[in-house]
Amino acid sequence: MAQQAIPLPAARLGRAVGATGTGATVSGVVLVLPDGDPVSARRPSPIAYAAALPLARRLARDGREEGLVAHAVHYRGQGWNGGDAQLATDADWAADEVVRRYGDVPVCLAGHGMGGRAALRAAGHPAVNSVLALAPWIPEDDVAADPEPVKQLVGRHVMIVHGTNDARSDPELSYRLAERAKKANRDTCRFEVHSDGHALRQHRPEVHALAVDFVFGTLFSRPYARPVADAFAAPPPLGLRMPLAAGFGKSLKGSKSLKN
Q1: Cβ(107)–Cβ(28) below 8 Å
Q2: In whole angstroms, how far apart are CA 233 and each of 171, 186, 227, 229?
Q3: Angle at 257 between CA 187 and CA 241, to 5 degrees
Q4: How far apart are CA 81 and CA 83, in angstroms?
Q5: Tens digit of pLDDT for each residue in 21-44?
Q6: DSSP secondary structure letter of residue 181
Q7: Counting Cβ atoms within 10 Å, is residue 82 exposed (0-12), middle (13-18) or buried (19+)?
């Protein structure tokens, strides 16, 4: 007798972190999308989900006074699975769920690896205001298949961050996507993290500080740090190969203390 396949769980939002106390006003939401696999029928990876939590916590902690809430997303399964684009479908569902829970608030999709691809693909959801794609997995160019779409990015703020030594998600492919996205949407930039790999561990404090600056700028109209403003303003290739400087977060704290 053939074994029946175990049904995959439904997609769901992880526990909210941020402005969630009694009477708290939610002014913006970040959905953090974990990494996944190109093809897989397996259940979602708890390791990938756990790896998404530090960014969610950092954003929620720094954005508490602004009314920011962050959720990491539990996918139905681990794989993108071709035309099913399962992870992007789950990201779209998550944005619907944010609207149901919090009403008309701006949403940033922040994804890593295959989650970065899901964030870019689901950007067309009406609630989405911005997309942060960290080391996004982009498929190789294939003459027999349509290229990864970019029209859904129009009207959104888009930032791609990629380590130059990424052996899992080719940084050159994310650059080519950024080139096409910039033609459709001028509010697109891309940072390169020199010598870092797929997990962006080597420069994690700088990457998280960059994420905070981007999210605050897009969701709450805070002024961008100078490197971010320059990246958005610069034409290709400069604005799409902007180096992330060591000590980026420390420099922001220093400038903030001088203003105070």
Answers
A1: yes
A2: 21, 8, 10, 6
A3: 30
A4: 6
A5: 656 799 999 999 999 999 999 999
A6: H
A7: exposed
